[in-house]
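Lab notebook page, bench 4
Experiment: in silico fold of construct C2
Operator: M.H.
Input chain length: 195 residues
Purpose: comparison with the prior construct
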Amino acid sequence: MVAEHFVKSGKYVPRATAEGARDLLQALPIVLVRNRSGRVLQLRRRERSPENPLNDRMVLWAGGHVRKEDATNGNSPLIHGALRELREELRLSAEAASLQLVGAIYVDSGGSSSKHVALVYQWTAASDDIDIVLSGTEFFERRGNSLSGKFVEVKDIKDLIASPPKSGQTLEPWSELIVREILGAGGGLTGRLLL
């Protein structure tokens, strides 16, 4: 399994070093957040730089790079990284046992995306009455980003892929692959679901 390979054979290197190296592939734990009814948290990102590939795109995940401190307490640094990102980005506290690994995806759309494998975890709330707090601290002060979000039906996301708007927000490639390969929409995005 891909996640086990990263945990057993991988090593931590600073992000700048990893981004600059031609021979390193980074594991990025990301989390698909769902409510009890199965709706998915859809987030809209605004990045500081308009050139950022996530700028004004919709994403179906929260997550990011693993930090050295994520390798503490004997658990997987991937799990700790995912839990930390949930706390930072959504102010959502979850337990390690509540995350389910549902796949690993790779999309080579050029640039830095070719240096990342997304390890996709799913967290499902115990009810539909879940409040997600989109933290101003994480998205405005630290990185100059903003985020908005809502829970949507999987069918609505599939419809967005089938009939993309002529203008406006579209799903970024990882999210589209999550819909096609993990949530079951099928289709032709060039990418790979790795297990």
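Observations: Residues 135-142, 186-193 have pLDDT under 50 and may be disordered. The longest strand covers residues 26-34.
Next step: discuss at group meeting.
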